User: Fold this.
Amino acid sequence: MTRAACLVGVLGLAGLARAQPGPEAPPRAEVVEPVLAPEPPSAQPVPVPEGTEAPAAEAVPAVPETRGRDGLPDDPAMPVRVRIVSPRSREIIPTSVVDVFLEVDNYTLAEGGNRLHVILDNGVPQPWTDVRRPFPLKNLTEGGHSVRVLAVRPDGTSIRGPEAFALVHFYVKRKDFQNYADPEGPFLTVNLPVAGEVDLDGQGRLCFDYWAHNADFAQSGLRLKYQLDAYEGELAEEGPVYWSNLPPGRHKLVVELFDKTGQPVFGPFNRVEREFTVRQVLRAVPLVPLAPDGENAASHPELGQ
Assistant:
């Protein structure tokens, strides 16, 4: 697997922390080297002189089984491939229940580890790991619908690459123009944050993971504008982006794609709204033993020994 540097923008949102007033920290950007898959072990034959016994093989320590939980392709030299087998493109389904059959190559899925995110229309990503069973869509309204599928890592971030993403547009009972995105035109796919409760990463950051399909920011002049609560920002590069200093509690994110003239880009997925709650991180407090008179051990050094 060749090394590829991915740009990760870290935007300080100091203004969001209600308990810490003050000027906003300037945005910073850092390049993070991706984790590469280890080289597979190899064995070389050892020549043994005639008439002698071959040396006993040394015991090799067992390698921990991480496949399905490492966020890496099975073969680092090959891309991860995701396919929507059914429904077919522009197929008319006679019922409001649709089974989505998926295939994934070169990427082992596991519950709580590597997985797929399935997005119906402009909805919220839903995790799926068992491609032996179809992903069920129920109570669909009549008309057009779209399904998008991404391969994601255990932390929820998506794997980049054109073959790690799939899109299909189909109809329920009748044709119309609902939920149709031109696969050749610019459109958005917002993966993270998902709706509901979310956790910050180990550095206290929230990941904004998005795809701007067919959007060459440098050549087209397209811009991605977002509003996170009262904070507004603009991006002109591919994600993901990490936001720091986000306090626990409920938040609302609005993302929209604009052209070079400042007008919204037409499309059903080019404006996305997500509401989510950052969970409070509880920290362990060391237990201080009490003295017989009810005072803590700090006033009785002999109890702390």
Remarks:
- The chain is about 0% helix and 35% strand.
- The chain has a mean pLDDT of 82.
- The longest strand covers residues 143-152.
